[in-house]
Amino acid sequence: MILVLTCDGDEHAEQVVDLLSAGGADVVVFDPAAYPTQATLEIAHPETGPARRVLHGGGRRVALDEVTAFWYRRPMNPVAHPEIASRPYAAYVEEECRVVSESLWDSLDCLAVPASRPVIDRAGRKPYQLEQARRLGFELPATLVTTDPETFLDFYDRHEGRVITKPVHGNQPEGTDERFGRFAAPVSTADVGYAGALRFCPVIAQAYVPKRVEIRVTVAGTRVFAAEIHSQVSNHTKYDWRHYDPGATPIMEHDLPGETSARCVALVESLGLTYGAIDLILTPDGRYVFLEINPNGQFLWIEAATGLPISAAVGDLLMEGKKR
Known about the structure:
4-stranded parallel sheet; 324 residues; 3 domains
């Protein structure tokens, strides 16, 4: 049995679940947001014998100890019953439910894709990723993480102003009505005038690395799928391909050298993951430079553009289950 934890409308999960079901797999899709209002979770430890973990939801009783693999894809947190009108009490209930559900997923003795939530959270921290990548021999851009304005200005001068900055973790403040996204961006002379504001919040600063193309490497288990993103043909994507310009940004399959491919697999494994989406730069002189890894990165857009069978590889990984 395969368990997929995700929210409604997740096209990536739907694609893989369809492939798994077509292959005869027993797949259960569950979003913890349904707990405790529309579903129940039980963890029982008898005086003797093994523990028992059960999910009741969607008219089905699921013995979670029979799960051979689960995909921690895009689950939402539990939501308190609407009858709890007090927001502080509702928040308390939701936290209690979150701890129960996360403890349950973490305790399952089976393959986790990409990993359990604590491992995903740790692997998603950019400073930690950079250190792991450096140890494995990836080339990195000169990088500084700081809240010290003077240290930042020294870094800026050392690299003659050819510096980009990016957020350490999130790129959009939560709980606000404003639409604000923070991506990788070059530091302008106007930005330098506000360097003193760094004392309020850390930032990642990196020396700008010239790009021939950007490389998206998707690793599923030990299978590697590389695509090149021609981000330099459009001003929208020059510094960050996530400002995707569909009409002017070609994406195609990339032939990644064996050594770099093996290093990508090693990075995913060193972070405790079974899946990861890695961003590299291919420089004009042919060097591969590591930027970051997303433990739960999207892949359908790469699959649609290149025909690379990433969905099938994720399905195969889940089907392997405990054999891994």
